[in-house]
Amino acid sequence: MEKITIVKEIYIEAFKNWRSYILEHYFKVFSWLCFILIAFAAYALVFRVSTGFSFSNI
Fold first, then answer.
1. How far is CA 8 from the centre of its chain?
2. Is the pTM of this model over 0.85?
């Protein structure tokens, strides 16, 4: 638990005065893009499983 607290303090200290408009919006867009890609991959997996796709070459 102590290590998690130390990492949290380092993270907060590193980004305390971080106010670059471009970087701030870049990370917001990047996080939404990652979320959309993960949702798309989950949808593709569910679609393949529901249609009976065989995942092996055997």
1. 18
2. no
Grade residue 41 by pLDDT with cuts at 50, 70 and 90: very high
- At 43, the pLDDT band (50, 70, 90 cuts) reads very high
Closest Cα to residue 41, out of 51, 33, 52, 29?
Answer: 33
**Rounded distance between C-alpha atoms, residue 35 and residue 26, angstroms:** 14
Question: What is the CA angle 45-48-49, rounded to 5?
Answer: 85
Helix, strand, coil percentages (3-state) for the chain, rounded to 5, are 75, 0, 25
SS3 34: helix
